[in-house]
Predict the structure.
Amino acid sequence: MTETATLGGGCFWCVEAAFEELAGVESVTSGYAGGHADDPSYREVCAGTTGHAEVVQVEYDPAAMDYEDVLEVFFTVHDPTQKNRQGPDVGTQYRSIILTHDDDQHATAERYVAALDEDGGYDDPVVTEIEPLETFYRAEEKHQNYFEKNPRDAYCRMHAQPKVEKVREKFRENVEA
């Protein structure tokens, strides 16, 4: 039995690549959520007109990692203090967002974010949105496993590769062999 987490932390290529490194992660799917248009395209989401964020759905084995472990990885691979941007990507489609699947996930995410702010691990407050997932739309096939298929892509080398390396270093005991 797997569980699902839906998270947005900037470009979905980067977040997807980081999670794909981990043992216990069964699959990662890039997509769109948190907006108002039905079945949006990448072009529409990038234009910022649909209200959607680029997100990933992480299917994970709860015997290998729990939801807090998923959140720890998520907050390791993006800057949750940047409102509506991550690095060079600017717009609401790149916002930091956790889309919860049930009340337990929602409460856990709220506690986790409050603890991050309380611990003072960041110079600025965490601006990560937490809201219930309404609908997830799978991104076009060319966006699935993008980093794996395009490791020489300049954007991937500049932005995804450092996130992958960070996960490999910080979570080395949980990295897939």
